[in-house]
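TL;DR need structure tokens for one chain.
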Amino acid sequence: MTEAEALENKQQQRKSSNGDVLPESATEDAFDHTYKEKEGPKPPRIIVWKNVILMTLLHIGALYGVFVVPSASRLTLLWSVLCFLISALGVTAGAHRLWSHRSYKAALPLRIFLGVANSMAFQNDIFEWARDHRVHHKYSETDADPHNAVRGFFFSHIGWLLVRKHPDVIEKGRKLELTDLLTDKVVMFQRKYYKLSVLVMCFIIPTIVPWYLWGESLWVAYFVPTLLRYTLVLNATWLVNSAAHMWGNRPYDKNINPRENKFVTFSAIGEGFHNYHHTFPYDYATSEFGCKLNLTTCFIDFMCFLGLAKDRKKVSRELVLARIQRTGDRSG
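>> reply
TL;DR here they are.
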């Protein structure tokens, strides 16, 4: 085989279903069209009652936190916003764009910060989050998708956390190549000490800081910057799985469910450009619009400016326009 033939063969293996040549790191993101859902009766949904009870109590506590907000000082409200942003970045810039898609590289100090921020978000450790997210992209809207939006808004938003995983999710997750996560010392350290890190970062620090530094009552500090903030971060993330897979336009690929949803983009600090993201999952910005409505992209760009991040992967404008013409819904 000649060198040219070898290159062509390699590119053929890396082509997406729509003919785009993907970068080396994007092949795991490509949808697996060879997967076929099993015919016949579906396995019964086994409710995890512990999760049902905990999620119910959490949302009741957050609702009470809304009524407590007027009692909070301005510093406490600013602290709540800061904790929200840190938590969200631990998911968006960390577990999602860095560790799930490897769309940019981060220096050790930034990886440590994102690992700590991810513990504040309390949405499973980085390893499990990234593994499930890779399964979600590879088998989107099938039984192997952890939060399959075809099963309805409630399931894709929160219901998937209240029942046992479909056997296909577990099976496909075990077959993924996860060496990059297993060899990342920050990911493995966080996984080893996850429960302790969550207790400290998600619950103790958000509560203690307002009480100790400016005399906020522990009651207000617990219900506003802790429970309410945590619940808002959870729901902002879940909206990407639910609303952004159901409502909005599809200017890049009309053949897939994920949509462009501005409300989700705002609430999830940049993760609502979802039709673009599922079309080009390896793009660090998750959209073609740079920092517009995309605080996570602004954060990554700033980290690059500081020398703490590098090698941002970006789709060329020519490739985006070609894809719009070929598979877009012509809504943009």
